[in-house]
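Dear colleague,

Thank you for sharing your sequence with our group. We've completed the structure prediction you requested, and as agreed, I am returning the results in plain text so they can be pasted directly into your records. Please verify that the sequence below matches your submission; if there's any discrepancy, let me know and we will rerun it promptly.
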Amino acid sequence: MTHDEQETGARQFVGRRGGDTVTLVDGSVIAGVPEAKQAAEEAGRELRFDFLDDEAVLDLLHRRHADEEEMFSAGFKHGVPLALVGFGAVVYWGGVAQYWETPTSRNAYLAVAAAVLVTQIFFFVRSAIRVWGDPVRQNLRARAAKYREIAHIARRGGAEIPAHYPHYGPYPFAATFRPDVDDREQSRSKGADDHGNG
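Please find the predicted structure tokens below.
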């Protein structure tokens, strides 16, 4: 059980990184709208997940929140230093280095700055591939995205569902379902399976 799960109620989850807690909508509410029930059943066969099972959905949303936290942390850890160093290198070039008298000094500065930036870009890309490209995590995101879609179908059909439930945005990338990936197989990025177990 994660820290967030301990702080939320039995049927609650954190809707987005740093957001408010949200109460799970019962699967029976979604199933009460025929179009949503049909979409849930079709998606269940396609994504190998029961979108009307409250316990399974709650676990999915807890794991999706943890995944979002880790994605943000990985991006922040490498993205912020990359942006700062890149900005500093450009400003220093514009204000100082380009006016140095010898081309050798200017070229040396450019070579060092380029090497530092390339190294940071490498770590940023490696982190992105590890976190965003992990196939087990992608299956998790694909299921969360589909659940959001199903919930919105139910809401449009008259079900009592909050406007942005489950409060995760659409997933324009890194949410491709990979049927060849076993959910129990070890995640390449963290040594944890799709349920967060080591």
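Summary note from our side: Strands lie at 12-14, 21-23.

Kind regards,
the structure core
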